[in-house]
Amino acid sequence: MTGTLPRRLAGALALLLGLVLAEGAGAEPSSWFRYGDEATQAWTFATVPDDPMRITIRPRAEPAPRRHILVLYPRPSSAYDIAITKILQVFAEKEIDAAFTVINFNNEEDRGEAAIGLAVRDHYDLIFGMGSESTAWLYRQYRGGAIPVISVCSKDPVELRQIADYESSSGTNFAFTSLNMPIEVQMAYIRELRPSLRNVAILVDGKNVSAMQTQAAPMAEAARKLGIRVLNVAVQDPANARNELKVLVADAVRAMKRNDPGLANSIFWVTGSTSVFSEIDVINAEADRVPVISAVPEVVRPGDDSAALSIGVSFESNGHLAAVYAADVLTGRAKVGELKVGIVSPPDIAINFRKARDIGLAVPFSFFENAAYVYDYDGRMVRGNARGPKSGG
User: Fold this and answer.
1) 129-146: pLDDT as tens digits
2) For residue 382, what is the enclosing H or E element?
3) Which whole number is the average pLDDT over 187-212?
4) Which pLDDT belongs to residue 385?
5) Do residues 325 and 177 lie in contact, with contact meaning Cβ atoms separated by under 8 Å?
6) Do residues 295 and 215 make contact, with C-beta atoms less than 8 angstroms apart?
7) Coil/strand/helix, residue 231
8) Structural domains in the chain?
9) Does the pTM of the predicted model rise above 0.90?
């Protein structure tokens, strides 16, 4: 499924802790689940008293929804919060009467099995697998089950061998959306930006299997085929990513200078590894004049703590696509096992001209013309929507 989707950049670092009223009572604030202000217009939120890792979401206008949806988080993530905010917005716009139960199973088998058990016992109508970890776990544990499953914020299912190719459907209870932009598209944009590219340093969490398999490895292969030198900048301890990146990025710059002394034909390419892209300030500090390009549009942000450029799929765009798939399945317009891989096209381009100017990067006009998000020389957003998720109960 392709097409230009509505877009909104959410600044994950600007999230503010707050309290949202739910069903007439104060919902307890949650440290792991957040949502955008716009979601409160149509939905109420509450933490389950005896399970702080479970959130219930109900429509304000519908006291007894006919449909029930499980959203399975593997861990807290601002990416997932951005996606669920968009899903709620689409469901409200389409007037899909549904209640949501969001469970953070913390990648624990027992909690995951209990969540599926709840969905089966209470005859839930759909499951959203939020993130690559949840999708992979559900694929192993619940493929062939009675409840439809749709992936959200999950990396490429073809590269992960969850489906044969982009033209096939699963033939099971799964439908997939892809958070990845095809590598050949990424490389085409990068070559337009740097026609004489000599070095590409790939920043990735070495423990993030999905990022390694669907982003880092394909990019490295594509670059080598073009005669471009590949530098693997892989964090080995995600909990210590900040300190590792200080050394790894500086080492990569020194290596780049051996065949590109002026650093005019080199780039850093940041994968969708949360532990890596959340340290964008450290990456920038050590990157010298090498452009930092992200596969995640949300890493392009206001001000200086930003990638210079992104070509990819935003969490919001992917959430929108997953919501459309879900609405079609719930209303009977589509069968989950017959849906092809959902790919957002064209890509979400984001540009921070302040960062580009600081490093002397000339951005082609075609990038600006097609960009979804643009920040000016003062680092202020001039295209897009700067509202972001807030903390919720």
Assistant:
1) 999 999 999 999 999 999
2) strand 381-383
3) 96
4) 62
5) yes
6) yes
7) strand
8) 12-180+315-338 (3.40.50.2300), 183-313+347-383 (3.40.50.2300)
9) no
If DSSP states are collapsed to H, E and C, what string results for 17-73? CCCCEECCEECCCCCCCEEEHHHHHCEEEEEECCEEEEEEEEECCCCCCCEEEEEEE
pLDDT at 61: 83
CA dihedral 378→379→380→381, nearest 10 degrees, is 140
Q: What does the alpha-carbon distance between residue 270 and residue 216 come to, in Å, rounded to a whole number?
A: 9
Coil, helix or strand at residue 203: strand
CB 118 within 8 A of CB 125: no
Three-state SS at 345: strand
Cα-based angle 317, 182, 87 (whole degrees, multiple of 5): 15
C-alpha closest to that of 252 among 277, 238, 269? 269
| CA-only gyration radius of the chain, Å | 21
Fill in the amino acid letter for 137. Answer: W
Give the Cβ contact number of residue 51 at 10 Å: 12
For the chain, give the number of residues.
Answer: 393
* Bond from prior residue into 364 cis (ω within 30 degrees of 0): no
Q: Rounded to an integer, what distance in angstroms lies between the CA atom of residue 6 and that of residue 90?
A: 11
